[in-house]
Design brief:
The complex is a heterodimer of chains A (about 625) and B (about 230). By secondary structure, chain A is α/β, with parallel strands linked by helices. Chain A has a domain of about 230 residues: Cobalamin-binding domain (Rossmann fold, 3-Layer(aba) Sandwich), CATH 3.40.50.280. Helix content of chain A is about 35%, strand content about 15%. Chain A starts with a helix and ends with a helix. With about 230 residues, chain B is α+β, with helices and mostly antiparallel strands. Chain B has two domains: about 100 residues, Alpha-Beta Plaits (2-Layer Sandwich), CATH 3.30.70.580; about 110 residues, Alpha-Beta Plaits (2-Layer Sandwich), CATH 3.30.70. The longest helix of chain B is centred in the N-terminal third of the chain and has 15 residues. The mean pLDDT of chain B is about 95. Classes of the chains: A alpha/beta (about 625), B alpha+beta (about 230). At the A-B interface, helix 1 of A face helix 1 of B.
């Protein structure tokens, strides 16, 4: 345990000290002397961001449910706290026992966003754990990582001892069990890693593989250095969501966090097949929880947390096959407890709005829709199965029901995009405005505004667009100016993401092993909290790219051909490469692919659970 | 029916802001199923008010809160139901029905603090009692207090002597902290923060106090009407 007096005098000086104290409702504080395996779970961002992540609540309770295992949390200290603990020479500690992270058996990171990677290096350093895997020995925790971004683990290969690919509920415990067994004998870190790499599906230990490069810097070959470890890493996937571990408790923070409510997962996977969406590919196939199970969980979660809102979170929650039944049952059950229901994402149809009308009886705040692209042609290219008529119907209906603030989400830089598509963003925003003001006077309820937000498209691994070269920063800026110049109405506003951040995100997301040096040197040069605009240091990154001799455009902007050996090609996420190639080819021709609930589209996933459910 | 309670705020939970505390009670009322009255309107919230909010980082043995109930409930039952869901460092230690309509914040005039001073220098530590006496016998102690004037922040000079009820030397604890207690004006009609007192003490007497290491605990709060000083509960 760290020095409490030191901690106390530090906490008096930092902003929001409640970030660092733990002690929340439903916290689990075990006697670490009596636990066999200690797992420090880290979300590499500040407390209030990390605490809003459902995966953390799942793994926290999953591990702590095993009597002899303990899971404690550690987040990235905000910059003021970092200065204080560095000055006081206090190693980074977990929230539960205020125990030094370096005394744990595992330090596990969840990889949700590439721009949090420098925070991972910083957390290792603040914990006084060597940042490079090669420098660690039996005295240090095993540093592991998982989550969606682990599908391209290579940019972190030097820092992480072991990656788990896919869903973590089963594999985390398998790893801890295996470790526990190794601890009973004469423990060797190397032997444990070999055993895990050989015998646990979904485990990737980067240092057991060698990568060679072609003259043009693309990857020539990748081969295992140890006999018996797999050449292709198969992702982990939970087959039955009803019988898998689902938390009945959630930690309830004292301070305000991003999502101050119960988060309940309805299903995993998504059948729409939007071609830009990584989650839609890697979480296949779709698997639902049953209404009975969800009601049971809801009851327990409301009881244990006291939260007054349940968010039904999934990739496209309105797709849940029993949504009406679920919502009416939830509303019946919790009517007198004042528990509200919310849906984080909405489809552009009146069914969605009908449900919304039912659940948001009192407050009609803003509504958000995601047409993603400004023209029908481009929406077909990305296979976003909505058209203008859907938007018109949904928005008209929303206005009729009393909503007056609309947000529209778009991406710019999508494959085949023309200036006309880009200007389509303005056209859609104006269309929404006209739909409001063309209503009869007595039906113009509220203070109207429409906001169009554009993000800069980052082509992600394991999507049909993985071969697409990202627009350059100049091109993004030109397109942004194009839209901005067209919008001249104070009821219509236009926001956009910083293209420089998206450029770096693309370099890392599409990066190979060489990118790890970029991350390391960038961190050395002071980069952290890169996802926070006030901390993002673009010039430092540009200089660091030069310093390590890497060409950012090679990773971000270069279009790749189908023959190229991509840095992440050794992972099998389910859908096969040929399917992604077919989808990309169809995209370029503007051909759509149906929702695979309506019939299999042949993505190649083995034993697709959909067969039993929907066909 | 209004129930007035006395509760603690101890240990690490001293780092909860006033807003965090309000959120904690809001959730706890709902979890404990006590019949709290809710406000009308689009966004109903439980009707309760906490007397003079504690600064972040100060522990307390006695905080006060008034809670409006929608139906009759025995204060003891209320306390038991609430304590079941409250964290161990924030517990209700006394509850009673009150009749008077005056709000806590309007009646609370004094706060009683226990203050732990860290004085590294042994010689200076021995002199603290005399320094305290010297300090409390001063006729006037001017400090600069931050005030908000509209949106601007300004500094005003204030004599704090009328804001001090008493200051007493108590001794030393086993870690070497010097313990004093202080009764200070608290609330809307005059307020002195304990750290302002310690800062002034150090300014005037040069006692070698490490301000950063100062630890503070509120022991109690007092109401005052027509010269009578009494506990709100």
């Amino acid at each position: 345990m760290i020095n409490r007096y030191k901690l106390d005098s530090i906490l008096m000086k930092v902003e929001k000290p409640a970030r660092y104290i733990g002690m929340e409702q439903n916290v689990i504080i075990k006697d670490l002397e009596k636990t066999k395996v200690k797992f420090a779970f880290s979300f590499p961002d500040v407390y209030e961001v990390g605490m809003s992540h459902l995966g953390m609540h799942i793994l926290y309770n999953l591990i702590n449910n095993v009597e002899e295992y303990a899971c404690e949390r550690v987040f990235a200290p905000w910059v003021d706290m970092e200065d204080e603990i560095r000055n006081a020479d206090l190693p980074l500690f977990t929230l539960e026992n205020k125990e030094e992270v370096r005394n744990f058996d595992f330090l596990g990171f969840t990889l949700q966003y590439e721009m949090s990677y420098t925070n991972i290096i910083n957390i290792l350093d603040l914990s006084k754990i060597p940042v490079f895997s090669a420098d660690r020995d039996e005295h240090h925790p095993l540093v592991i990582a998982g989550g969606p971004c682990a599908y391209n683990p290579e940019p972190l290969w030097e820092f992480i001892d072991l990656f788990v690919i896919g869903e973590g509920e089963e594999v985390t415990l398998e790893l801890m069990d295996l470790y526990s067994k190794h601890k009973d004998g004469s423990y060797s870190r190397e032997q444990f890693l070999i055993d895990a790499a050989m015998n646990i599906q979904g485990v990737y230990v980067p240092r057991f593989y060698d990568v060679s490069y072609n003259e043009d810097s693309t990857i020539e070959n990748r081969k295992p250095l140890i006999d018996g470890i797999p050449e292709v890493i198969e992702k982990r996937m939970i087959r039955n969501l009803d019988t898998m571990f689902s938390p009945e408790k959630m930690l309830v923070p004292y301070m305000e966090t991003i999502h101050d409510r119960i988060s309940m997962e309805l299903f995993r996977g998504c059948t729409h097949g939007c071609r830009f969406c990584q989650a839609g590919m890697i979480y296949r196939p779709i698997r639902e929880k049953s209404v009975d199970r969800l009601l049971e969980l809801a009851e327990k979660l409301v009881e244990s947390t006291g939260y007054e809102n349940i968010s039904l979170s999934s990739l496209s929650s309105c797709d849940y096959s029993q949504l009406h039944l679920l919502i009416s049952s939830l509303m019946d059950r919790f009517e007198d407890k004042k528990v509200g229901i919310s849906l984080p994402s909405l489809r552009l149809d009146s069914v969605s709005i009908d449900i919304l009308k039912e659940i948001e009886k009192v407050r009609k705040t803003g509504l958000t829709f995601a047409p993603e692209a400004g023209s029908q042609r481009l929406r077909d290219v990305i296979n976003k199965g909505v058209d203008e008529e859907d938007l018109v119907n949904a928005v008209s209906y929303a206005f009729k029901e009393g909503w007056s603030k609309i947000k529209l989400y778009f991406m710019i830089g999508l494959p085949t995009e023309t200036d006309d598509d880009v200007v389509g963003i303005k056209r859609l925003a104006y269309l929404v405005k006209d739909l409001f003001f063309n209503r009869p006077k007595e039906e113009k309820i509220g203070n109207f505004s429409v906001t169009a937000s554009a993000s800069c498209f980052v082509p992600k691994p394991f999507t049909p667009f993985q071969w697409h070269g990202q627009d350059t920063i100049e091109e993004f800026n030109r397109k942004i100016r194009l839209v901005r110049g067209e919008i001249k109405d104070n009821k219509v506003s236009f926001n956009y993401h910083d293209p420089r951040v998206s450029y770096l995100e693309a370099i890392v997301a599409r990066g190979d092993r060489k990118v790890s040096q970029l991350l390391y040197r960038a961190w050395k040069n002071g980069c952290k909290f890169d996802g926070w605009s006030e901390h993002f240091k673009y010039d430092t990154y540009l200089n660091t790219l030069k310093e390590v001799g890497l060409d950012g455009t090679f990773y971000a902007n270069r279009a790749r051909n189908f023959e190229e050996n991509l840095p992440w090609d050794f992972i099998n996420p389910g859908p096969n490469k040929q399917y992604l190639i077919n989808e990309y080819t169809k995209a370029l021709k503007g051909e759509t692919t149906r929702d695979c609930r309506l019939g299999c589209t042949g993505c190649g996933i083995k034993d697709c659970a959909m067969w039993g459910v929907f066909n | 029916m209004i129930i007035r309670v006395r509760f603690t705020k101890l240990g690490y939970l001293k780092y909860l802001s006033h807003l965090d505390l309000v959120r904690l009670f809001t959730r706890s009322f709902s979890r404990s199923n006590v019949p709290v009255k809710y406000s009308e309107g689009f966004n109903p919230h439980p009707r309760f008010s906490i007397g003079n909010p504690l600064s972040l980082g100060i522990e307390s043995q006695s905080e006060y809160m008034d809670v409006e109930m929608s139906e009759e409930i025995a204060p003891n039952e209320f306390m038991i139901m609430m304590n079941r869901v409250l964290p161990k460092d924030i517990q209700i230690i006394h509850a009673d029905i009150i009749d008077d309509k005056e709000s806590l914040s309007s009646i609370i005039k004094w706060s009683h603090y226990e203050i732990y001073l860290w004085i590294e220098d042994t010689k200076k530590r021995q002199e603290i009692k005399e320094n305290l006496d010297r300090f409390t016998s001063l006729d006037q102690v001017m400090i600069k207090k931050k005030k908000k004037k509209g949106k601007r922040k300004i500094h005003v000079d204030v004599d704090i002597v009328p804001l001090i009820g008493n200051v007493t030397f108590k001794g030393e604890d086993q870690d070497g902290y010097v313990i004093i207690t202080a009764l200070l004006r608290s609330g809307e009609s005059g307020n002195l923060k304990p750290i302002e007192l310690v800062t002034a003490l150090e300014d005037k007497t040069n006692s070698g106090i490490n301000l950063e290491m100062t630890r503070i605990k509120r022991l109690d709060a007092f109401a005052e009407t027509e010269g009578n000083i009494y506990r709100p509960l």
